[in-house]
Structure formats: structure tokens, C-alpha cells
Amino acid sequence: MELRQSALKVYEICNAVEKALAVHDLARKLSTLTIDCTALYNAPALPGRPVKPFLVAPQKVPRRSPFTKLGHCALIHSIAHIEFNAIDLALDAVWRFPNMPEAFYLDWMRVADEEAKHFLMLQNHLTSLECSYGDFAAHDGLWTLCEKTSHHIVERMALIPRTLEARGLDATPVIQQKLKKVASPHALDAISILDVILQDEVGHVAIGNHWYHWLCAKNGLDPNTFATQASHKYDAPIPKPPFNHQARRQAGFTEHEIEALSGPQSSRINTI
To answer: How far apart are CA 215 and CA 130, in angstroms?
Structure first.
């Protein structure tokens, strides 16, 4: 078996739980797999997806209070949707981009495995509350930027792990604070799950930072300038406070990048 082709096959699985379990199975076999770094694969239009959740515009996703059971389930569902998409984002990096070192593919396979773990933890939490992934509407904002960067690996590394996934480092503590105010057993369980997710996501963003800087060095690009240009080109989201400076430092952001977070938002300095 070959890793990148196997990752593509998992990427095409539609059932969310089956996909997450298949990722775990593939990750367990890593030591037995070959890696063809040069192979090119025909890109499917989209990764495999379940029939639900229904995808709507971001502004049409209902907002509910986390102080109710329904609201709590909706919140956890939104995070599960992000983690499900993150599985596909990591698998996409494994199969889509040729001519990278073997370590690149192994790194993103490890990320896919941890994203699958996150998704299953959240799905199990929803199940304990008599809900399931797919019960609420969701949006496709995360995948839109993935599609836009499908033909340029440097832009992908600049904008997905370092911009979109890094937003999770900032948002998770805020969500946890809201759940602490609820203080119900299921809220406390969710906080514990988010602790695991936050710790792992620091590593995922660090992997993105590593390969972004590696690619910039290889291609003679200035990391700050290129990231700003890519942000403009694709109208990437601008990071908004509050920022988790400690987590961002752990994930490999420089002090210059940390300081840029506090700069004028209109400048679109989006190196973070």
C-alpha cells in the first residue's frame, strides 16, 4: 500500500464516522506503507461528505445559547463540523501536493489522525446528549479557502494552518470560558475535550508554520510579504482579538507576527 493514494481513498469516504475510523486505521499502518512523493492524482470535485449537515451561508447558521441543551449541542456540532473538515484538509495535503519530502506527508497524516480523534470525541459527546453530527445546519467557509489554494502549496500553507487553523487557538479559550459559566456536567465534559483539541492544534499550526517557512526558503520568498499578498489575493479572514499569544508562540509564530496582530486591521497584515 502507498500512503498518498490510500489517503485519497479515505478522503473520498462519505460517512463521517467511517472516514474518521479509516484515518485511524491508515495511521496505524504508516510504518508499513510506501510513499510515492512524485505521483499526481486526479482531484475529485469535493471530498466525500455525508448527506447531512445541510450547508448554508455562514450568516444563516442559527445562533443558540450554550445555556440550553439544544444550544450546547449546536455549539459542539459547529466544532465537530470544523474538525470533520480538518480531517479532509489534512488528507488533501497528503494526496494533492507532489514533490515534497516524505516528512511532509507523514506530518499531515498525523494531523489527519488527530483531527479524526477530535471529531470522534465530539461525536461521542453529541451522542451522549441524544444528538449526532448532521443534526444542525453548517457552513462551508473553511473549505472555500482550501479550494482556492488547491493549485499552490505555498498559499495553502500560508492561509489554512497559519490563518484559519490558528484562529482556533484564539477561539477555544473563549468558548471554554462560556462553558465554564454554564457549569453543567456536559459543559465540563466539553471543556475537557476542548483542552485536548487545543493542545493538539498547537502542534498542527506548528507543522503548518514549519512547512510554510521551508517552502518560502526553497522558493526564495519572504514569509511576511508573501503571506500578506496571499491574504489580499484570496480575501482571507483577518484575525480578531482576543489572541492566544502563548499558544501562537508555542505554534512557532515569531514576535514580529505576534506584534502584527495588534496592528491596524485595515492594513490586512495577515501573516498570522
So the answer is: 45
What is the CATH T-level fold of the domain 3-267, as seen in this structure?
Ferritin (1.20.1260)
Domain definitions of the chain by residue range: 3-267
Could you give the CA distance from residue 211 to residue 217 in angstroms, rounded to a whole number?
Answer: 10
Torsion sign across C-alpha atoms 215, 217, 265, 252: positive
With both helix axes pointing from N to C terminus, report the angle between 166-182 and 69-96 in degrees, rounded to the nearest 10.
160
Q: How far is CA 270 from the centre of its chain?
A: 17
Return the exposure string of 147-178: e unless at least 16 CB atoms fall within 10 Å of the residue's CB, then b: ebbeeebbbbbbbbbbbbbbbbbbbbeebbee
- Count CB atoms within 10 A of the CB of residue 104: 22
3-state SS assignment for residue 242: coil
SS3 for 222? coil
Dist CA 248 CA 241 (whole Å): 13
Name the residue among 157, 104, 171, 111 with its Cα closest to residue 271: 157
Largest CA distance in the chain: 53
Q: Is the dihedral of CA 129, 134, 157, 236 positive or negative?
A: negative
DSSP 95-136: HH--S--HHHHHHHHHHHHHHHHHHHHHHHHHHHTT--TTSS
Contacts of 230 (CB under 8 A, 6+ apart): 149, 154, 155, 158, 159, 236, 270
Answer whether 216's CB lies under 8 Å from 194's CB. Answer: no
What whole-number distance in Å separates Cα of residue 234 and Cα of residue 225?
Answer: 15
10-residue averages of pLDDT along the chain (272 residues) = 97 98 98 97 91 89 87 96 97 98 98 98 98 94 89 96 94 95 94 98 98 98 93 89 95 90 50 35
- pLDDT for 263: 62
